[in-house]
Amino acid sequence: MTTKGTLVFLFLCVASAASLHAAEIVPDEAILAKIDATAIRIRSGVTKDEGFAALRELDQACTNKSLLVQQVMLYLRFRATTEERGYGAIIIMNMMDVDKTTKIKAAMPLLDASDIEWQKIADAVLSTTDMDSACADGVDFSLYDGILRETPTMPPAALIRYMYKRNPQAAVVTAARIFGQNVPETEVAAKAKGGVKESADYFAGRSEWWAHLYVTETMKKQPHLRDAAILKKLEKDDHPLVKEKVAEITPGK
Asked: What's the whole-number mean pLDDT along residues 11-18?
């Protein structure tokens, strides 16, 4: 199944199992109706120019872009009950005239929503937004620099969790740039791209929580790297995200 096909399948399953009372975004029925009409229209065999015209009409009808992004996500969560609607909504999300920062800020609150399906949709929105084949790691986490710098002593945990899950190497380099004190970014980048065992040893030997989070996430993804001595060291880190990840990879403790 292609990536796009997987996304559509995900959204169809999410929508079919949904009940509206679980929503964490207030529905705007007028906007949802326009999204539905646009999704159906752009998947009904129209020309490329007609498809762009439909998207422009939707953009013009909803000038609050953050609200528009949230309503498209809500549509995917509850209303995209057919394959055509699912494909159409994904095209809207990817092609509408909304800057990346607006998409990120609209999706971020749902990363730690009580409803796991909202989390999946937010994750999908962010992963398509920060995907960049021109970057060495295939992702552009510099998009999150401004958000992370807004609260450097208490960064948004859900966003940090998402970044490390998505790409630990890119995440640790970004974290070093934002939170590191006199930490050479080039050194961190080189170590993150080195041998996996050597990288784990290097970052476990550092004192910063963002370095330890890289090790725990790497160990979660690659269980054969779990080392009792390193885990014992990481268990002493009091940062909530590190403690959370250590607990995940050391069940029964």
From this structure: 46
Contact 15, 78 (CB under 8 A): yes
For CA atoms 24, 110, 148, 65, the dihedral sign is: negative
Share of the chain above pLDDT 90, in %: 74
Closest residue by Cα to residue 115 from 249, 36, 17: 17
CA distances from 168 to 54, 122, 163, 233 (A): 39, 19, 7, 20
Instruction: Fill in the amino acid letter for 191.
Output: K
Confidence of residue 16 (pLDDT cuts 50, 70, 90): very low
Geometric angle at alpha carbon 136, from 4 and 87, rounded to 5°: 10
Q: Which of 109, 112, 175 is nearest to 141 (CA)?
A: 175
Q: Which two tokens stand for residue 7?
A: 């996304």
Q: What is the dihedral of CA 130, 133, 137, 140, to 10 degrees?
A: -30
What letters, b where the CB count within 10 A reaches 16 and e where it falls short, cover 101-113? ebbbebbbebbeb
